Amino acid sequence: MMCNKCGRELITKNEIPGTGFVTCNVEWGYPSAKDGETHTFTLCEDCYDQIVREFQIPVDRKERIELI
Ligand SMILES: [Zn+2]
To answer: pTM for the full model?
Structure first.
């Protein structure tokens, strides 16, 4: 799996990723010009941070309690 923004490889076979990453699945619907399309992309943590840093309104952040 690779980061769509910087092209960095995130997971090679049977390896633990060296960084956090997120896979986004965007289902466009009416009234988008992309109505009916599903877009999927992956971002590494660095690229994610770069993008959200440009937000005028910061991301909604919640602490999560990890369930084991
Ligand atoms: Zn990246």
So the answer is: 0.79
